[in-house]
Structures are given as C-alpha cells and as structure tokens.
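We store chain and fold; thus.
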Amino acid sequence: MRIKSIIIALLIPFLFLSCEKSDIKFESEFKDSYDVFQKFKASSNNSYFYIVTGTSFFGYSWETKLTVKSGKVVKREFYFTKFESVQLPPNGWTAKELDEILKKRGKEFEESLKKDGITLLEYLQWVEDENNLGKLGTKVDYASQIKTLDEIYKLAETDWIIKRANAKVYFETKNNGMISTAGYVVGNCQDGCFNGINIKSIQAIR
C-alpha cells in the first residue's frame, strides 16, 4: 500500500504539467515548421541564405539578406527597395534617384551622413562579411539582426508567438513549410508596431 502511495505521489507533478496549457499561440504549426526546418538544415549541411523584409507606411521598404555557412552567419547584405517613396531601379541606385532623395530629405540629412562618414549610397545599400559583421549596420537601424534560423525559431518560440493580452499574434510558414512570418502587434498600432520577422525567401546554398 505504501509503495502505491509513493508512486501516486511521484506521478502527481507530471499530471499537473500535462494539464498546463502552452504559452505558444500556434503550437502545432510551430512544431510542424520546426520539423521541416530541421530536415532542411540536414539536407543543406546547415548552409543557406534567407531574406528578411521590412516596410513603413511613410514610403520606406528594405531587405536584409543573411548568409549562413555550416551554422554560422558569414555575410549580411542590406538594401532599401524604396526610400522616401523613391523606388530602387532594377539595375540599382543611380545618381538620378540619389539626387531626388537628397532633395526630399534636405541638407540636414546630407550633413548627418557626412558626420557619420558615409555617402547616401553607402547608407542605402551595403555588405558586411566575416571581417566586419555588425559594423556597418550600426549606422542603419533598419537592418535585420545577425542571426541564424535556429536563433529565429528560438525567438519565435520564446517571444514572438507567445499568447499576449491585447495583441494580435501572427505565424505563417510560406517558405516551403518554414517560417515566413512570426510576430505580434499590440493594440491598434498602425505603423512600426510589428514585433517579429517577415522572411520572403529561404534557400539552400549548394
């Protein structure tokens, strides 16, 4: 009888744990997506690139391309696709677009760039490699952080898609089952309120 009581006592904590509800808003979808990512990692030797997008209602949009080799970020490329409603041409920024942007932003913006020691073109697009990762991005707040997809999935699980009061949570897997959107918006905020990530492409490096 005593042995039976001991067994029951040991099982009680596990019963309570099994009854607890998950804090993750899209738990099943997240697990399925994470499984897909693990298979992708194995098939690609953990070498890939992914492109993060961002946008603002005030005429700005941008992309950050992060390259990962053997599980380590080795390159970060950033570029505005629209700046002050001026669209990035198919063949890249030219003097015409740069002049148009400077006219819209004024002398104060131009002087601030000079103070930072960069040109407008260097502000609009730049590339970091293993030798200077994280250095150019300090002058442009829009660039996505230097993270692997392992770290992105961890952020989604522990922050971006947990249940929150007065917040709408988003989770989509349009990259062949892998994360395309993960994050939340608090209240009725209209611009710059999304906390999370939007990934438009994930590709293996062959």
